[in-house]
Automatic annotation (TrEMBL):
Entry keyword Ribosomal protein: no
Swiss-Prot/TrEMBL keywords: Membrane, Transmembrane, Transmembrane helix
Region listing for Disordered, in residue ranges: 220-242
Domain of life, per lineage: Bacteria
Species assigned in the record: Streptacidiphilus cavernicola
Record field: compositional bias (Low complexity): 229-242
Transmembrane segments: 33-50, 56-74, 81-99, 111-139, 160-179, 185-209
Name of the protein this chain belongs to: DUF3159 domain-containing protein
Amino acid sequence: MSHSHRSTEAPEQTAGKAAVDTSLIDAFGGVRGMVDMTVPGFVFVLIYTITKDLALSSWSAFGITVLLALVRVARRETLKHAFGGVLGVAIGAFVAMKSGKAEDFYLPSMIYGVVLGLVYLVSVLVRWPLVGMMLGPILGENMTWRTQNPGRLAAYTKATWVWIALFALRAAILFPLYWAHKVTWLGVAKIGLGVPPWLVAIYLSWLILSKAPPPIKVVQAEDAEAGEEPAAAQQPAEAERR
């Protein structure tokens, strides 16, 4: 007699995994956000490699960033990441034109990556992993994972280490190229270390969190606490009736 295969996962667990998957992508900028941040760098390195004109390359990169932001406005999409991209490219272009060194176009974003990596590292060391702080409110568990769900605390810690490794990898490759004044290779590396490793980090984070205990929703926790109080209050009344 044949038996049909059935999933052993509860519906809420499956839904939770899908929510984590979507929330991870959104929390870290989304695919569109990563593309918006990669394209200006590609435009800069392409034009500079061909023309060696720093001003033209900088203004072209800034112009494409503004164009991408305007497309977001037209589509009524969130401007959070688009604004960050415009600001980052503007600072990079200003620094490069001020110093006269094309490699300085990438320096602000490289420094930002190092600072962000240190923030992630500190968050792990103080047991407030940043991935959990970002996803907790999105998944409706807020900070219950830290005090009531040790399995999720461990998972968020591991996932945060994944992003620390990503920032460390980028710094280890980009800074030697910057110090060697290899502008074209620096630009190529910056592009290569954008979306592909980001997708890998997203996948590894999802893999870690998909094996973690389900989140303890704040509403559920409040309902449980509220349910205990009436039960306690009913005991004296029942004792009087007896």
